Automatic annotation (TrEMBL):
It comes from Cryptosporidium ubiquitum. Residues 7-93 form the Longin domain. This is SNARE protein. The keyword Cell inner membrane does not apply. GO terms for biological process: endoplasmic reticulum to Golgi vesicle-mediated transport. It comes from the Eukaryota. It is found in: Endomembrane system. It is a lipid-anchor. Belongs to the synaptobrevin family. One of its GO terms (molecular function) is SNAP receptor activity. The lineage of its organism: Eukaryota, Sar, Alveolata, Apicomplexa, Conoidasida. SUPFAM superfamilies: SNARE fusion complex, SNARE-like. Coiled coil: none annotated. Gene3D superfamilies: 1.20.5.110, Longin domain. Residues 137-198 form the V-SNARE coiled-coil homology domain.
C-alpha cells in the first residue's frame, strides 16, 4: 500500500488548470520510469480537475493507480495518487489534512511562490507519512476482516462444491429459526437471494 503523489490544483474561471504544488514518491519505479510516471500523473490531474464537482469525493482508477480527489467551493482541488490497495479513508483524511494546512497558511485565492514552497513542504510531509503505508489499528482490523471474509467465502464455496446440498443443510440446521428457513425457501422460489456473499 503506497502513496505516490499529491497534487494541489486551482481552476480558473476559464477552466484552465494551474498546478500549484505537487510532490512525488516514486522510489518503487526504476529511474527511467519516473519521468514517464510523473507525466502520466500530471496528465490525469489536468484532465480530471475541470470535471470535478465541489464537495464530492471522487475515486478514479487508471491502470494500477487509484486517484483520490476532492474539490472545494473555493476552486482548490487536491489529488492523492496511490496504488490500488491504498485505503480510501486514509487517502481522503490526508487530502483534508493538506487542505486545512494550506488554508491555515493562505486564505486568498492567489498563491505566491513563497506560499507554494510552504505548500510543497506540507504535502510532502503528508505523502511521506504513507510511503509505504504504516498500518494503524483501523487498517489492521480492516485487513483482518477482509482476510476472514475471504477465507469464509472460499471455505463455504469449496464446502458446497463438494456435492453438499444447501437445501438439505438448511433443513437440518438447528441454528436457523423457522422464519429464516421460510425466507430461504421463498427467496429460492422467486430466484432472488435473501443474502449474498461478498
Amino acid at each position: 500500500m503506497r502513496a505516490y503523489s499529491i497534487f494541489v490544483c486551482n481552476v480558473d474561471n476559464d477552466n484552465s488548470v494551474e498546478i500549484l504544488s505537487s510532490c512525488f514518491s516514486l522510489s518503487r519505479f526504476s529511474y527511467f520510469e519516473r519521468n514517464y510516471i510523473k507525466e502520466i500523473f500530471k496528465f490525469i490531474v489536468r484532465s480530471i480537475t475541470p470535471k470535478l464537482k465541489p464537495g464530492i469525493q471522487e475515486i478514479i482508477t487508471h491502470d494500477e493507480f487509484t486517484v483520490f480527489s476532492y474539490k472545494w467551493n473555493d476552486g482548490l482541488s487536491i489529488f492523492m495518487i496511490c496504488d490500488s490497495d491504498f485505503p480510501t479513508r486514509i487517502a481522503f483524511s490526508s487530502i483534508f489534512e493538506a487542505y486545512i494546512h494550506i488554508r491555515d497558511q493562505n486564505q486568498q485565492e492567489i498563491f505566491s511562490t513563497e506560499e507554494n514552497k510552504k505548500m510543497y513542504k506540507a504535502i510532502n510531509t503528508i505523502l511521506n507519512k504513507y510511503k509505504p503505508l504504516i498500518s494503524d489499528a483501523i487498517i489492521e482490523s480492516q485487513i483482518k476482516i477482509d482476510k476472514a471474509r475471504e477465507a469464509i467465502n472460499v471455505s463455504l464455496k469449496s464446502f458446497l462444491d463438494r456435492g453438499e446440498n444447501l437445501d438439505e443443510l438448511i433443513q437440518k440446521s438447528n441454528d436457523l429459526s423457522e422464519s429464516s428457513k421460510k425466507l430461504f425457501k421463498m427467496s429460492k422460489k422467486t430466484k432472488r437471494p435473501c443474502c449474498s456473499l461478498q
